[in-house]
Amino acid sequence: MIKIIECPRDAMQGIKEFIPTALKIEYINQLLKVGFHTLDAGSFVSHKAIPQMADSAEVFASLDWKMSNTKLLAIVANEKGAEQAVQFNHINYLGFPLSVSETFQQRNTNASISEALIRVSNIQHIAKESNKNLVVYLSMAFGNPYGDNWNEQIIADFIKQLLDLDIHIISLADTVGSATPLQIESIFKSSHQIIKNQAELGLHLHAAENQVFEKATAAFLAGCQRMDGALKGFGGCPMAVDNLVGNMDTEILLSAIPAHELQNPINQNELKEAIELANALFLKYH
Prior knowledge:
By secondary structure, the chain is of the alpha/beta class.
């Protein structure tokens, strides 16, 4: 069974013009009605680095989460952000971006990989103390544009370190859209051999629209347990490259996965409403 994680945070974070807080709340509240397993709905990070997410505390405080079975996730980059996020009882997951690329780790969290691993350990402690789950995203898991060393053994070594830190959810992230279906299949198979039943393995891809179906199918067949997307494929990582590569379009992603394989059923009527809101929102703010 696959958990679908919708990522309005990732869709919005690279937009330079500030999206009014009320519109963010309206959009995310509609997403809460659709039936996604989780919403990656905001982040507690430096306002200077990601100004679009400066109002995440206000957004989380205003969501109609009680009427939904959907869980909420917030991205954090350090212990301070984790401490802020755990103040919200209805945030179920903290997400931390750990890169296998030294260059990107510095760009994204202003820390080395070794420093980031210490943060992971500390944030895991904060999460456990507050009955939250930590999701670690292994970014640049399919290669990087910086010339940093990359191979499947490096991914395996990172996974082993995360298992040693008692991390139970690991998501392989393709931050710049370079993953191929064959890569996805190969890395998932080798990763599952290491993880066995110790952790849940997910995928966070950025991909061009014409590549989404093929990549999502490859991940599904390779045993992906959680898959991230964003309606209409909006978004991307502003800390990675100058030209953003959008997220996996959730509609296409859903078309690649049999409905009976979804952990949570999708309400098609509410999904249609959410798509209409997404089109209006991202037409105005892009």
